[in-house]
Amino acid sequence: MTAKRKVLICGATGFIGRNLTEALTLRGDLEIHAVRFTRPAYDCPGIVWHQGDLRDADTVSRLLDGMDVVIQAAATTSGSKDIVTRPHIHVTDNAVMNSLLLRAAHDLGVAHFVFFSCTMMYPSSGTPLAETDWDPAEALNDRYFGIGWTKIYVEKMCEFFSRLGTTRHTVIRHSNVYGPHDKFDLERSHVFGATVTKVMTAADGVVTVWGSGEEARDLIHVADLVDFVRRAIDLQKTPYELFNAGAGRAVAVRDLVSMIVAASGRDLTVRYDLSQPTIRTALCLDCSKARRELGWTATIPLEEGIRRTISWWRDAFDRRSD
Ligand SMILES: C[C@H]1O[C@H](OP(=O)(O)OP(=O)(O)OC[C@H]2O[C@@H](n3cnc4c(=O)[nH]c(N)nc43)[C@H](O)[C@@H]2O)[C@@H](O)[C@@H](O)C1=O
């Protein structure tokens, strides 16, 4: 019998980390270790919990010792309000954590490291952009300067350590992820989570959207991203790969809001508030590399993902019918 691969999921209480943890514990061939920091553990059969601050080098070495795979989903992250008003909160901790994790993975002989990057380096485009369509000589959107370059630094560190021959790395440039366990508060959430909350809780029949509604994003359901990671840790044999992971469709914020309102079944008026934080860019990813090399493609249509997320939101938050 082959030994189970030991998989460490960092950030297991966060949005992506929790969805990964809950899905991967269902597999019989993996032994799942989950790292939490300040948030409490949740019930999940078969999981081994660890607590630790990933900004501390000794803690990082203790956690990675003996692991075969590290899935690095721990990040300081929040939506456009923080990106616009206090962008520095996304920079330092992410740079420190990832630097320590990548060094420890190499020193301790971890076989595979998965890093969630972002898509902030891409220029605004309503047509799909491939991994090679980012030109490092082009300026990043001003709003994304700090976290965008931090992610690129970590991407390059992954490539650097891959070249040393011990650890294989997968970098995933995923688009805007949504689904169960996302942030749904109005301060820190992204556009999808915030809009679901606004629509479901609107007391006066009005939903107020930040910006003009013309900004566009590529939206991917978290279950599709989990499927991506599953394929990467099973199929990738090369030392370093960087992949786009998105739905391949740019959806204007105003259309997203209309779809969420329609799925809610509520009769609401939508207003646009130009004084609120907004990031004028359009994102759309070409994921043909992932299709070719991992057989992956996003499978959950946005309309279906919206229905599923509203249903989850009702179970998790809507106590009015109790
Ligand atoms: C993929 C990418 O995704 C994220 O960056 P983002 O897309 O810029 O962030 P967001 O989802 O918060 O905003 C998208 C747009 O939506 C508008 N918007 C309207 N109404 C609300 C609203 O109520 N809340 C929020 N947050 N935004 C709103 C808002 O004004 C902005 O123009 C990062 O996680 C980053 O890590 C990353 O890689």
Automatic annotation (TrEMBL):
InterPro entries: Epimerase_deHydtase (IPR001509), NAD(P)-bd_dom_sf (IPR036291). Residues 7-246 form the NAD-dependent epimerase/dehydratase domain. One of its GO terms (molecular function) is GDP-L-fucose synthase activity. Gene3D superfamilies: NAD(P)-binding Rossmann-like Domain, UDP-galactose 4-epimerase, domain 1. This is GDP-L-fucose synthase. The gene is fcl_2.
